[in-house]
Each structure stands twice: as structure tokens, then as C-alpha cells.
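Weekly puzzle thread! Below is a chain. First person to post its structure in C-alpha cell form gets bragging rights.
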Amino acid sequence: MGKGQRATQVYRSTEFIEQRRDEDGLVLGGDPFKLAPSTSASLLESEANGKAAKASEASTKTIVAKPTRAAETESGELESVPTFILVTTYLSYLMLIIFAHLRDFFGKLVYPEMYVQLREQNGFAPMVSDFESLWTRRLYGRIRDCFNRPITGVAGGHVNLLERVSFDFNRSFEFTGRVRNVLNLASYNYLGFAQSEGPCADKVEQAIRENGITQASTRAESGCTRLLVETEDMVARFVGSEAALIVSMGYATNALNIPALVSKGCLIISDELNHSSLVSGARLSGATIRVFRHNNMASLEKQLRNSIAQGQPRTHRPWKKILVVVEGLYSMEGEFCKLPEIVELRRKYGFYLFVDEAHSIGALGKRGRGVCDHFNVDPREVDVLMGTFTKSFGAAGGYIAGSRALINHLRLKSHSAVYAEAMSVPVLAQVSSSMRMIMGEDREHALEGQQRLDQLAVNSRYFARKLAEMGFMTMGDPGSPVIPLLLFSPAKIPAFSRECLKRNIAVVVVSYPATPIITGRVRFCISASHTREDLDYALEQISEIGDLLLLKFHKANVDKERIARIDADIDALNITV
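Winning reply:
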């Protein structure tokens, strides 16, 4: 079957207007993506018919994301938690740690052969001490079945999970040979581009036939291809910058490019909840690092004022550069950075601004351009825009975007550009095709990108509102595709994951050290590929689990303020007939 035939016959896409939807704007039944027009002529004809239908049918509605009111609200502060929950959570961790030390103490006496790797051998010190590995061995090891679950096939709205069992308390696992199809609320597949069939897959196949798999070289040598240059130009246009640099690994995009921007004598002011890649890049740079409270503009301004007034340590000379580093969407909290306020501080104090849009690019804003689009901020107000292709674009790697002078500097100074391999052809083709679809530049699928953006916006708000109505304690800003639900107790973290798996739902649970010790949580990642039936099934099962594990902390007093915020955000959506 040819690439055009497969795209139109197998992949069901586009035309948001003609979808059958409920009062919340969610797709009713079946695949959320309708059959795509097969040719440009049919697309133009469908557009004309759509305009005629708009004029005659006042009941047909199209939901288009509008800059939300999240900037006008004070978010980021954890809700008031009952004292009983806090006390029991601390006591639970205390008991776990005490019993872990007791097991180690008696285990070394009774089963010394099991602790050989933690002792000095032949004059060599152990690679990892028993105290350093205590958390991994005694706490993480007990719930290891909740993590690293192997899958097969495409991680779309549903995913095939390879069933496994353990007969030695999670030290090892054996496959049963069975495969389970589960609802996927764990992947960052925000726009549903993680597919093996469809227009993007066809473009990838075509690119492989024309260019092979890889150039087996760095871009500084023979890895700079026409496809790479064209994709970089497209990324720059997409985010609204002069130029862009593509890196083959998302983590390395931060870890290897920040050291090329700042060095000794410079200052990095970082949000306390920034991603590990940002922390690694800051430490590798050799610059002085200071931290401000998460999303707290008063704390940020205080750090700026003190740092500018005092200058460098000991010498008190002025800083060579000051770089403020934030994330567009904090994936553990589901919160947006307060970009408009940060930009005002930038104008006032004259620092450079680095925004990590790993989770926000493609998922936020009426055009999917990220947090700048969401808050209607000119991208030129941000000096360095970073993002990844792993989430919304169904690919891999990342990019740095900014002024042409900045990108030219990074091409020569960044280790990711000079020493790392160039991005492979299939990944470049996936990035290019999905981005063209979002921008509406793919004539045969011009409507599909906007449809995915709209569907994601509706899905995320619907899911968050229903959880709040049920009485769960959730975090995040309205419109975030990541919705954390607080579990608190360490015993409830694995219990929630296992109960979801029993009901064929895949979720990600998170605990310390990835989060503060008292705020263990489960993260629901919403996708445009989820239908109304998918979300309603998940909500029904999550409600049952919430009753079983006593997680509905607001059941007697539903969080009306949070529901009102979500409703206000929904009202802010531009609904046209």
C-alpha cells in the first residue's frame, strides 16, 4: 500500500468541526480523529462546506484555545493539608527507615553473603555504600513492580503491557507471556503523534528511503544535512525566533548548552523545582548558582536585588552575566511559570532569561507555541527558548532557539553541536512532519494540527474538573495536560499504581526524591488521542480507588475554588459558531 493510501485509509484524522461532541466538547465514541481529506482539492472543498455550515447551523461549535486566566491567579501554593495526613505520612516514612536499618543490621549478621557488594573486597572500597543505597534497596525495591514496566507496540492512547511477576520480592522478574492492553495515562504523548501509521509515519518512511537512517557523524563534520537545516529553520519559525539549533538528546540540550552560555564569574538564578537536566547544566557551567522559591516572584526579585548589590563572592565585582532559568510547564506540579511577571523583572533588572519548554511546547497556547503563546508574550522577550520533541511531537531530542548570534555561538562552543551525533533521519522526519501539521502547512492535513490542540485543551480541563468534583486533592493550573493527584502516604503510592493496573490503566506514581517527601503523587498525562469514553472509564475507576484508599480529602468539602478556576479557564476559551 502506498504512503498516500495508508495515510487516508488507515489513519483517521482531522476535521474537528464535523466531529460528534458532547456538551464539554469531547469526542463521542470511536477514534477522536476523523478520516483525512485525500487531496488538497478535497480539503479546500471541505473548508468551503465548513464555512457554509457555520453560517447555517448555530448549534455547531468549534473550541479554540485562548490565552487562559492562569496568569491572573496565584498558583503554585500547595493546598492546606489536614494535619492528621501530614503526621501519619511522616510517621510512615520514619517507620520504613527504622525497619530498613534494622533489616540491614540483622541481615549482615544472618545472611552476610547477601551484603558482599556493600563491603570492602580485596582492598577495593565498595562502589556504593550501604547507607547510600538504603533507600534504593529497602524502599524503592519493595515497590519496583510499579516502575519500568515493559511495553510493546506504540505508546498511544492505549498501550500493550508485557505482564511480569516476581517470586523474590521484586529482586527479579519473569515474563508470563501474556500481553495486556491498557489505557495509557502515563506517556507524554500530548498531541497523539506517537503512531506507527498515518501521515507522519509515511513521511518518516519516505525520508528513510531517500536519506537512510543516520549520517554516522557529528554535524560539525558530515552530519549537517539539508533535512536538518530545513527542520531547524522550521523550529525557529514555529517558536518565533531568528534561529534554532537541534540536539539529538533532550537531556543534553540543557546539560550541554548551559555551560556554553555562562561560566565562572556568571550567576544562575534557578527555580527550586527545575528539572535535573537544568541542574546538571548549571553545575557543569562553573557559574555561581542561587535558587528562588518555586514560582515566587518576590523571592526571585529578592535574589536579583541582593545579587546585583553584592556582586561576586569575595571580590564583589559585577557579575559578567545573570541568567534566570525557569520551566514553562513544571511536569511534577502541572503548573506554568509566571512568564509575564518574569518578563517584567527582566526589563527592570536586565538579566538573561532561559525558559525550558520541554512539556509546554506543542501542548500550550491556542497555536501550540508553548508558554509564550499561552500568555501572549512576545518570544523575543525570552533570550533562550529550549524545548524537546519527545512529548508533543512524538519524536526525540530537543532544540535551543534564540537570536542568530546566540545560535552561531552555540554551534561552535556547545559540546552537543561539536561532539554529539547529528539527529537521525527518522526522528528529523517525525519532527518536521508533526510540526508542519501543527502549523497548518501540510495541505492534505491542514486542519488536523488545530484539532489535536483543541482536543487536548478540552480533555485536560474536563479531566481536572471531574477529579476536583470527586473530592481529590489535585495540583496544577487549568489547561495543563499533566494533572498530579496527591497520595501522601508511602503505602498508598504503590497501592494506587497496582489498583490501576488491575483495572487496565497505566499511570506513573512519583515519590521522594523526585518530589518533597510528604507530597507523593500520581501524574495523569492527558492526550488528544483519548476519547470521552477513555476519560470517563478512567474517572470511574479512579473514583473507586479513591474510596478504597481514602484519597478524597475534599469529599465532604469539595474544592469549589479550584473548580471555579477551571470553569473560568473554560469560559475563557473562544467558542465560535
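Puzzle host: Confirmed. Bonus trivia for everyone else. The two ends are 39 Å apart (CA to CA).
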